[in-house]
């Protein structure tokens, strides 16, 4: 008599794509990232590519706003709730945040803006315009920013990289 067992040693596993969907966002600055600046990554997930976020923080009420502020990382949702981002770091010239896509309501596309401000909220640098990330078709995006040069190198956005993992 032979007995054959099938399955996984870790128990029932979800089907492809049920969990583990994350988005890692990296802001690469021209100088050292510093706690004297606030680094924002703003996401619009409504699916309308014509309504993406602008560089003005006063217009972000209906968007998801991830920020590095004073050594801590947060995600504010459009309903005003805020959660701490655990998987994040600021090292040398890079600010990195990994966000669960469920926290962004599991979008198919994202309109994306990156902004750096001083502590008072004055915009020092941003992408020229928001970028559209259609995550159904692409898993890695890289935007080189050549506009909005600022004399404060730690606030000057050089490149933004976004990687979606399923």
What gross morphology would you assign?
Answer: globular
Helices and strands: which structural class? mainly beta
Uncertain spans, ≥5 residues at pLDDT below 50?
2-19
Q: How many independent structural domains? A: 1
Spell the H/E element sequence: EEEEEEEEEEEE
Please indicate the percent range of residues in DSSP E strands (runs of 2 or more): 35-45%
Distance between the termini: 41 Å
Biggest sheet statistics: 7 strands, antiparallel
Oligomeric status of the shown chains? single chain
Give me the Rg, rounded: 18 Å
Helix content: under 10%
| Average pLDDT metric | 86
How would you describe this structure to a colleague?
It is built from no helices and 12 strands. The protein has 166 residues and is mainly beta. It has one domain (22-165). Strands 2, 3, 4, 5, 8, 9 and 10 form a 7-stranded antiparallel sheet that branches. β4 (72-76) and β5 form a beta hairpin. The termini are far apart.
Labels describing this entry:
166 residues, 7-stranded antiparallel sheet, mainly beta, 5-stranded antiparallel sheet, disordered N terminus
Walk me through the topology.
Blueprint: E1 22-29, E2 37-44, E3 64-69, E4 72-76, E5 82-84, E6 88-91, E7 94-100, E8 109-118, E9 123-126, E10 131-134, E11 140-144, E12 157-165
Antiparallel strand pairs: 1-7, 1-12, 2-3, 2-8, 3-4, 4-5, 6-7, 8-9, 8-10, 11-12
């Amino acid at each position: 008599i032979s007995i054959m067992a099938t399955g996984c040693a870790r128990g029932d596993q979800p089907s492809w794509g049920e969990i583990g969907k994350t988005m890692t966002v990296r802001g690469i600055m021209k100088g050292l990232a510093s706690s004297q600046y606030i680094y924002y990554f703003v996401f619009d997930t409504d699916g309308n590519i014509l309504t993406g976020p602008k560089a003005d923080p006063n217009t972000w009420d209906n968007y998801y706003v991830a920020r590095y502020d004073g050594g801590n990382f947060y995600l504010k949702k459009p309903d005003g709730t805020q959660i701490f981002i655990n998987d994040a770091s600021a090292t040398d010239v890079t600010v990195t945040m990994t966000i669960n896509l469920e926290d962004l309501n599991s979008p198919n596309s994202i309109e994306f803006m990156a902004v750096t401000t001083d502590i008072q909220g004055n915009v020092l640098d941003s992408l020229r315009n928001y970028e559209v990330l259609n995550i159904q078709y692409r898993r890695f995006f890289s935007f080189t920013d050549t506009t909005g040069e600022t004399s404060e190198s730690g606030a000057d956005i050089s490149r933004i990289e976004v990687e979606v993992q399923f």
